[in-house]
Amino acid sequence: MTKTITVGNFKGGVGKSTYVELLTYILSTKYDKKILVIDSDPQADVTEKLKRTFHKEEMEPETELLQSIKNAVDSNFEKTIEDAIITIHDNVDLLHGSWELEQFDTYVVEELKDKKARYYLFYTLLKDIKEKYDYVIFDTRPSTGITTTNAICCSDYMIITTQTEEASANSTRKIYNYVGSMLQYNENIELIGILPYLIDPNGSTVEQVEAELRAEFEEDVYEHIIRRSKRVIAWGKYGITEHLPYDKKTLHMYENAVKETLERIEKIESEE
């Protein structure tokens, strides 16, 4: 059964797109899972990162995503958004992000007069597509807009990424409460956990913020945390590699986080 996961925070630069990239890479290449990545962030960072990793930099979709959405809505959903999907690996399809998605919220408000229906557009667009995949993974923009709400309303699970700094911790509290408020629209969504990203592992403030996160959110905080790495910066620029110095050590750090993600999902499902 397909599992749909949204990865997000209201603050940018907290490792969100990087974790989507690594989660996709590890699930597809190490676990042989079929993945659909949906890049709903107009900056399209995860789109560019994954295309570099799988050497598909020149590949573009037949139709830009927002236009494909408009075409589907105009046809009363007889058309799908599959023409906005590109295949970048045997196990990875990508709903290609683009700057045009900046207009998604405005389009939805103007097109859909039923306010509640505005939250379920992605749900409707994906319901006949997603069953082909083991996982559907949303990368979201750092905001509470209609795009992010749509992702949450069609997801089974949520992962919150956060830096160990005070501003990110405050943002994490806000999105944690926001996800709780969204239960009125998607009563089935479950929080997988809060994944901390250490920007300065040796800093005392970092340790204090991490301790505060664990004290406040307890077992919702991942045991396996992500530490800032120069290899990840290089991967973002050139694509993920496994043969260069420190590749294996850095990849192992993310493999532990992915393994914990799967274990947390298994635990949630066993308690249902």
UniProtKB/TrEMBL annotation:
Keyword list, A-Z: Plasmid
Keyword DNA-binding tagged: no
Domain of life: Bacteria
CDD domains listed in its UniProt record: ParAB_family
InterPro entries for this protein: AAA_dom, DNA_Partitioning_ATPase
Pfam families reported for this sequence: AAA_31
Domain AAA: 2-189
Protein name: ParA family protein
